[in-house]
Write a structure and sequence with these properties.
The protein is α+β, with helices and mostly antiparallel strands and 325 residues long. It has three domains: 103 residues, no CATH class; 131 residues, Jelly Rolls; 71 residues, 3-Layer(bab) Sandwich (Phage tail protein beta-alpha-beta fold). The chain contains nine helices and 18 strands. Strands 1, 2, 3, 4, 5, 6, 7, 8, 9, 10, 11, 12 and 13 form a 13-stranded mixed sheet that branches. Strand 2 and strand 3 form a beta hairpin.
């Protein structure tokens, strides 16, 4: 009787999938749909990622080794490129996986990600070689992987403005709380407040794929002016106007703009930019509305207006400023 090892069978299946995806990417007509399929498979498990990255690394080494061969060997290899490229790849992949094992692969093959972060009240602009730019707002963490094959950004938390150069073979993918935003050449904003992800499109197009929860509705392509909000229980899409978009980007100038905004919402927004927190004393005060442009790093200017125009009481208590009647 043959004893079947479930773990070995699973690894063999993962190897087959990884090889299949790399063959399609290297030798077939790879497009945005193919990349989305690969990204989804990689997101399924760390083991999928480990095996694929190991395969990818082995394939890259094969290219480098081939470049070092004597000219005659290179000539023969070029003449029989389809055969040799597949042979090199498959042999390298299985030899590498056999040598390293899955646990080793998970350690050695962590993606070459670069982490960018801002402090509370800070901002940072990151420019990339392809002409793309990402601007991080206050208290934001991004993990970025840009290489020859993919452009992947993980928005751990916070808010970022994306101005992305279009590349059909390497569409930029942003992941936030399981939601996926695939750039189709555009400018957009993504905000991740952990319990809510909001995507606002200024121009161009993006595809929004909701997280694998209740909301596994079909993907949707956003047009300029569209805003998608994804929570644990719903996904909604609405249209907004240009002035609202400009207001949402006022943080790039160090300003927050409120237009008949409930005081509780304005305070929540200001608190993102300072370690000293504003506190609303009661619900009735929070419902009062306020308008104007305020420096994001100067809560005192905001409380001064609340005091003078709304007749509210401002009191400093330790690390908090309490707003009350």
């Amino acid at each position: 009787m043959t004893d079947t090892n479930p773990q070995a069978a699973r690894m063999s299946q993962i190897n087959d999938h990884a090889t299949h995806y790399l063959e399609r990417r290297e030798f077939g007509d790879w497009d945005e749909k193919d990349q989305a399929e690969l990204d989804a498979w990689l997101a399924d498990s760390k083991t999928n990622c480990a095996v694929f990255w190991r395969l990818e690394a082995a394939w890259d080494r094969t290219h480098r080794l081939a470049a070092l061969q004597p000219s005659e060997t290179n000539r023969v290899m070029q003449a029989h490129a389809p055969f040799w490229r597949r042979a090199f790849k498959i042999v390298a992949v299985f030899a590498a996986i056999a040598a390293i094992g899955v646990s080793g692969a998970l350690y050695a093959l962590r993606p070459q990600e670069t982490t960018y972060s801002t402090t509370v009240g800070g901002r940072q602009v990151v420019a990339f070689a392809d002409g793309s730019q990402i601007e991080l707002n206050t208290d934001t963490v991004l993990r970025v992987r840009f290489d020859d094959n993919r452009r992947l950004v993980r928005l751990v938390h916070g808010e970022a403005y994306f101005d992305i150069a279009h590349d059909a073979k390497r569409p930029l993918t942003v992941i936030a709380e399981g939601n996926r935003i695939v750039d189709l050449g555009t400018r957009f904003i993504v905000r991740n407040d952990t319990n809510k992800v909001e995507v606002s499109l200024l121009d161009g197009r993006v595809r929004f794929d909701p997280a694998d929860t209740h909301a596994r509705s079909s993907s949707t392509v956003l047009a300029p002016g569209d805003v998608v909000v994804s929570t644990a229980t719903s996904v909604t899409k609405a249209k907004t106007n240009t002035s609202k978009f400009l207001e949402s980007l006022s943080w790039q100038r160090g300003v927050l703009v409120f237009d008949n905004t409930p005081l509780s919402d304005a305070v929540a927004e200001l608190n993102r930019y300072s370690d000293r927190k504003l506190v609303i004393a009661d619900e009735a005060v929070g419902k009062l509305e306020i308008g104007g442009a305020f420096p994001s790093n100067n809560a005192a200017a905001f409380t001064r207006v609340a005091k003078e125009l709304l007749g509210l009481h401002i009191e400093n208590r330790g690390d908090e400023t309490v707003i009350s009647r």
